[in-house]
Specification:
Layout (H helix, E strand, L loop, with lengths): L1 H36 L6 E10 L3 E8 L5 E6 L4 E6 L2 E3 L13 E9 L3 E8 L3 E8 L8 E8 L21 E7 L16 H17 L4 E5 L9 H10 L4 E8 L10 E5 L7 H11 L1 H5 L11 H10 L1 H16 L11 E3 L11 E8 L3 H7 L2 H21 L6 H7 L3 E4 L6 H8 L3 H8 L11 E4 L3
Length: 457
């Protein structure tokens, strides 16, 4: 009997030990689950850190896997700018950031409070800062944008008088705007071809060509790989008191078969075609991709659009655009044989004639191949330049060198196929040199549709 009781007690003890062991294992397992969850406390990974230098500021972009709260802190002696991201970690390298030419002398990172990511920007100069979070869009995810503005803001270049204009006859100022830039690549073509690169190359060629024409002063709105907001593009043109604003683009469409170059002016009503509306919507969303703080966006009032019709700015844009389109027709296939209109935000300047030129569809493999070649870029720039020259030869702004030349008297001649300067000079009994001087020509090259003023013999 005692033996039986001892056996029962042993069995009970074994069962109790087994049950306790199971409980302990369960507790350990639960602890392991909790410990496994700890790394997931990081809400966002910083997958990439990108940096661009613009004329007046430096931009740093943090590409995040998820949205994250952040706070900032400015420190002195030495000067530093600190950005703390809650429950985040750095998955990218900071070693290869292009810091040369920026006020940033170094970037460091560390973990704060066990879960927060701290980025420290060591500064070599005083800056004004702006930091904001941007939501995902079609091309990028969540981003924290850090703008470090130079304390002494560089001023946009002032129009200067050419040698021929030193007696007070000013140059005609052309503001040339290469679209997109920086973290906004614009449309993409085969082989990684980017719109922002192509249009900057065309814009630079246009600037170079116009700079050779006496009486013209071209100015690039963007002269490097950085983003400029749509508002600032317009503002630069107005600050320069530009006689024309030309925004250069290379569009894309859903179907790769879409093709042809186009010229657009602003519409105060609806778009003139489905494609025009689609492109306007795409271009107007560029600020969201390029990274612009919402506070910087100022919707243009209806009164401004009313001013457009009152001042004749829109009429000038349409007529000038038609001349550019005529010249482009000799270089590329046209998408439409007339100037189209849509509500492009970048064109909403009340007092500067403004055009947006789509040099081709970068989404079309054939046109993308041509857009990438220097020869085609040069031809496109030349066509745009010819259209601009043709308009201002006919309608020179008062006080300009071209207006003075026109006032000297003479007869207007529109160049036809087969015309040469020597033949025209002989026809009117004047010298080739006098025709070139009177029309601001630096070479013996003329083109069909160009208007020349023939001086009195």
């Amino acid at each position: 009997m005692h033996v039986t009781m001892r056996c029962d007690i042993a069995v009970i003890r074994a069962a109790m030990l087994l049950r306790a062991g199971r409980t302990l294992l369960g507790a350990l397992a639960a602890t392991a689950v909790v410990l496994a969850v700890v790394p997931a406390a990081h809400a966002a990974d910083v997958n990439a850190v990108r940096l661009w230098r613009a004329p007046d500021h430096t931009r740093v972009v943090l590409d995040l896997s998820e949205s994250a709260d952040f706070s900032t802190l400015s420190l002195e002696n030495p000067e530093r700018f600190v950005v703390d991201l809650s429950r985040s970690q750095l998955s990218a390298s900071l070693a290869s950031l292009p810091l040369e030419g920026t006020p940033i002398s170094g970037v460091r990172s560390g973990i704060r409070k066990g879960t927060d990511l701290r980025l420290v920007f060591d500064l070599s100069a005083s800056v004004r800062t702006s930091v904001f979070l941007l939501p995902p869009n079609d091309t990028t995810g969540h981003r924290v944008v850090i703008d470090l503005f130079d304390e002494t803001v560089s001023v946009a270049p002032e129009p200067v008088l050419s040698v021929e204009s030193l007696d007070g006859r000013r140059d005609i100022v052309i503001a040339i705007d290469p679209g997109h830039g920086g973290e906004d690549p614009g449309a993409s073509g085969p082989g990684g071809l980017r719109e922002k690169t192509v249009v900057l190359q065309i814009a630079r060629r246009l600037e170079s060509q116009l700079a050779e024409v006496p009486g013209f002063k071209p100015v690039l709105v963007r002269n490097g790989d950085y983003y400029v907001s749509l508002k600032n593009r317009r503002d630069q043109a107005r600050q320069l008191e530009a006689d024309l604003f030309v925004s250069i683009h290379a569009d894309a469409f859903r179907e790769k078969s879409a093709h042809g170059a186009s010229v657009y002016a602003l519409s105060m009503r609806g778009a003139t075609s489905t494609t025009a509306q689609y492109l306007a919507d795409t271009e107007n969303a560029a600020d969201l991709v390029g990274g612009v703080e919402l506070a910087d966006m100022d919707p243009m009032l209806a009164g401004v659009l009313a001013d457009l019709s009152m001042t004749g700015t829109l009429d000038t844009s349409l007529n000038l655009g038609a001349l550019i389109l005529e010249q482009i027709d000799g270089v590329a296939r046209l998408h439409k044989k007339r100037v189209e209109q849509a509500g492009f935000a970048v064109l909403k300047s009340p007092d500067v004639p403004s055009l947006l030129i789509e040099t081709g569809f970068i989404s079309n493999p054939g046109e993308a191949q041509r857009l990438a070649t220097p020869a085609y870029q040069d031809k496109m720039a030349r066509a745009i330049r010819r259209g601009i020259q043709s308009w201002f030869a006919r309608q020179p702004p008062p006080g300009t060198l071209l207006a003075w030349q026109r006032e000297q008297g003479g007869k207007e001649v529109t160049i036809a196929a087969g015309d040469t300067l020597s033949e025209i000079a002989q026809r009117y009994g004047v010298s080739v040199a006098s025709i070139k001087t009177n029309n601001g020509l630096s070479r013996d090259v003329i083109f069909v549709g160009q208007t020349l003023v023939i001086p009195e013999g």
